[in-house]
Structure formats: C-alpha cells, structure tokens
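Weekly sync, protein design subgroup
Attendees: M.S., D.O., the rotation student, P.L. (late)

Item 1: inverse folding check
M.S. brought a backbone from last month's batch and wanted to see whether the design step gives back something sensible before we order anything. D.O. pointed out we never logged the input encoding, so this time it goes straight into the notes. Structure tokens as presented (252 positions):
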C-alpha cells in the first residue's frame, strides 16, 4: 500500500451556527486519485480548502507529508503550497494576461528559470492538456473547456506533488468533461500527481477515481473503492450513484 500523503483527523468546521464538517478523519494515499462525492452544500469544497490551508479548521488537523499545516501561518504555508496545485471551479485565469503569460506566471513568481526554460515549460504543459497554438490568445476568446485546460496547465507548471480539483467539469458538456477526466488521469500517470477531486459528476468519478468518499451531514458515510461503493448497503449512497431522486431512496 502507498504511504498516506495526507492524514486528516477529527476535522471540524463551522460557519456561525452551521457545522459543515464534523469530526471527519481520513487519509489520502500518495499517487492516488481520491474523489469526494456529495450533494450540493454538503461541505465538499470546504473539505478541499482545508488541504492547502486556504481555510483553518475549528478542531482537528490536516497533516501533509508529516507536517501539520493547520497551525501554519501564511508565510509558513508558502513552501507547502508550491507542492499543491489547485484548479478552481471557474479556472481563475488572469483576464489581463494571454495564455502564455498565465501559465508562465507561477514560474516567474516561484522559480529562477530563464525565459528559454519558461517557454519550454509553457509549451510542455500546453501539450499535456492538448492545446497548441493558442499561447497569445486572451482568456476571453477561449471556450469554457479550453479555459479549464489552460488553468490546469498553469496549475501543473510547477510540477506539483498534489492537485486539488474543485468541481472541474461544472458547466462543461459531456465530451469536454470526459476530456478533463482524461487529463486528470494523464497528470497522474505522467507526473505522478496525487489528485483530490470534489465533484458530483458521476461519469467523471467512474473515469478517475481510485477511491471515493461520500460526504453527507458533515461526515463521510462511506470511504472505499468505486466497486465497493456500488455494492455498499447504504440506500443514500446507492441512490446518489444511481442518480435517483432522494425521495425514491429509503434513507436512514
């Protein structure tokens, strides 16, 4: 078994009187693709943001590669975040920069690479996401799927150890969503990236998941392989995986 890269223990997060995550504990293994599933508003994205310190827990901790990141300051988190890339829902490209400069941005900020090496990395990452000849286009001229792919190329620019994906296929058609799934798997194979994907996209889950966790009521109702999930004796999980309406399930 691969070693746990993340160890999350007794994680709790509330906003006012509403507890979104309550006493959640799980591991993410090095090199795996770990999918967090759940209905809208169940705390999936909140859980994801704990993994790179974008939000702090109210209780419990997140340990990354032996370091408790939940207690680190922004300055102390800086070297950790260079190892953890994140693809946001909207892509978060800089509208004022063309595609080349968007991908080059983290290389200029965080490395001492010369322009030739930066250009080579930009070309390589665009090839990795199957885009060519768009280096000087502005983000406003790109389709939604192309924006996601450019954002992924930028996230991979520093060759991160981990990639966090927040609803990577939201707003995309099925064919484009399938291509994003292939790119996630490709990054895992090519760069050895550990991926954590928050989604409610079941076809994407089938394509990329090594293990899944099903979040409901602030807790994980299930953690295991997709095959184990499909055989689990949990009516809510089965209803979710089969795409049935909630009232059709005898939910405990």
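Designed sequence read out in the meeting:
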């Amino acid at each position: 078994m691969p070693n746990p890269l993340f160890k999350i223990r007794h994680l709790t997060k509330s906003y006012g009187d509403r507890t979104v995550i309550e006493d959640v504990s799980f591991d993410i293994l090095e090199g795996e693709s770990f999918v967090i599933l759940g209905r809208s508003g169940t705390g999936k994205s909140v859980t994801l943001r704990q993994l790179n310190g974008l939000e702090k827990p109210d209780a419990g901790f997140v340990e990354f590669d032996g370091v408790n990141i939940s207690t680190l300051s922004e300055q102390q988190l800086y070297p950790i975040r260079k190892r953890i890339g994140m693809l946001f829902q909207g892509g978060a490209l800089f509208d004022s920069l063309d595609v080349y400069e968007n991908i080059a941005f983290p290389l200029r900020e965080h490395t001492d690479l010369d322009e030739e090496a930066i250009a080579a990395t930009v070309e390589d990452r665009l090839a990795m996401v199957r885009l060519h000849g768009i280096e000087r286009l502005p983000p406003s001229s790109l389709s939604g799927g192309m924006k996601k792919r450019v954002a992924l190329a930028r996230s991979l620019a520093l060759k991160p150890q981990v990639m966090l994906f927040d609803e990577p296929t939201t707003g995309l058609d099925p064919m484009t969503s399938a291509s994003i799934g292939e790119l996630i798997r490709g990054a895992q194979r090519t760069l050895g990236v550990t991926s954590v994907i928050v989604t409610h996209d079941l076809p994407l889950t089938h394509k990329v998941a090594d293990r899944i966790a099903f979040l409901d009521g602030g807790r994980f109702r299930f953690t295991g392989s997709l095959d184990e999930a499909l055989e689990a004796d949990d009516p809510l999980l089965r209803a979710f995986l089969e795409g049935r309406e909630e009232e059709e399930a005898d939910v405990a």
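Discussion: The longest strand covers residues 4-15. The chain has nine helices and ten strands.
Action: P.L. to compare against the previous round before Friday.
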